[in-house]
Amino acid sequence: MAEKPTNKIKTLKKKLTQIDARISDAKNLARHKESKRKRSLGRILIMAGATNFYNVDDKPFNFIMSLGGLFYILDFQDFKLSVILGSCHSVISEIKNHQELQSELVKKSKSYYQDYLIRKAVSQKSRTNKNTELEQPLFLLLGVLLKAKSLLIDDGSIDKYNQLGDNIFIQHKIKQQQKYQEYLKQKNKEI
Amino acid sequence: MATSNKLQQLLDQKAKIEEQLQIETDKRFIQVGKIARQANILHWDNKTLANAFKFLADQGSEEFKSK
User: Fold this and answer.
1) Can you say how many angstroms the Cα of residue B41 is from the centroid of all Cα atoms in its chain?
2) B15 touching A, CB under 8 A?
3) Do B3 and A8 touch (CB under 8 A)?
4) Residue A80 CB neighbour total at 10 angstroms
């Protein structure tokens, strides 16, 4: 016997409630993953030498996620971490002592960011953005990422940057181990 | 990436269910309309109909509570 429309409506409404709960869970999971990814990307940017231009010591802990958020502005978040690290590191090494190159990158990133805001406003229609302003020093880092991304896309030598990134990771790990050993020594002395 | 795929699947599923719900609700509206015609109340104005339905709904929920 066919199900009564009233029962069908009840069943469908129940299903809708269930699916809404699952959508909410999936959104939370996606948000959590995105935060984790942003944190990793922020750490990578610091490891690549972002502290040459920007002092992050006096910033709150979760500020590192804002640095990771810069990658999302450029849609640069899905590359392998070692590739990102390698390319960012080589850009930072190149511009570290060149004021002119730095100003050029800031100029480019400001123009890119303006376009990005327009694109975002169009895609979100009337929704207003609460926080659209970037801190001035972040424009330089955005410029670094712009150049790093273009290196990967135009140059095509992903393997080279992958290798470079892996080496930096290894060096970083060795440094961390040395720091830990020193900490242990210090602790033993105190005891 | 997998998470966003799953989310998309769920959103697609939701859209399908909403579509089905709309179809079933439309069917139900037709049934209710037919009952109203049989009861010869189609010529009542909307306000009177709304009051009558409200009265019936209240009575129905009272009966449901007393059971």
Assistant:
1) 19
2) no
3) no
4) 13
Whole-complex ipTM: 0.77
pLDDT per residue as tens digits for the range B6-58:
899 999 999 999 999 999 999 999 999 999 999 999 999 999 999 999 999 99
Segment A46-57 mean pLDDT: 84
Token readout for A123 is 């895609």
Residues in chain A: 191
Q: Does A12 sit within 8 Å of B14, measured CB to CB?
A: no
Q: Which token pair is B38?
A: 């049989």
Give A70→chain B minimum CA distance, Å: 19
Q: Is the pLDDT of residue A148 over 60?
A: yes
Q: Please check the confidence at residue A19 and state whether its pLDDT lies above 70.
A: yes
Looking at residue A144, what DSSP letter applies?
Answer: H
Q: Is B11 on the interface with A (CB under 8 A)?
A: yes
**By CA distance, what is A10's nearest residue in B?**
B21
Which of B4, B9, B10, B18 is the best residue to mutate to test the A interface, defined by the most A CB atoms within 10 Å of its own CB? B10
Residue A131 has pLDDT above 60, yes or no: no
What token pair was written down for A190?
């105190």
Both tokens of A7, joined, read 């029962």
Confidence class of residue A89 from pLDDT cuts 50, 70 and 90? very high
CA distance B7 to chain A (A): 6
Neighbours of A83 (CB within 10 A): 20
3-state secondary structure of A159: helix
- Cβ contact, residue pair B17, A19, below 8 Å: yes
CB A49 within 8 A of CB A92: yes
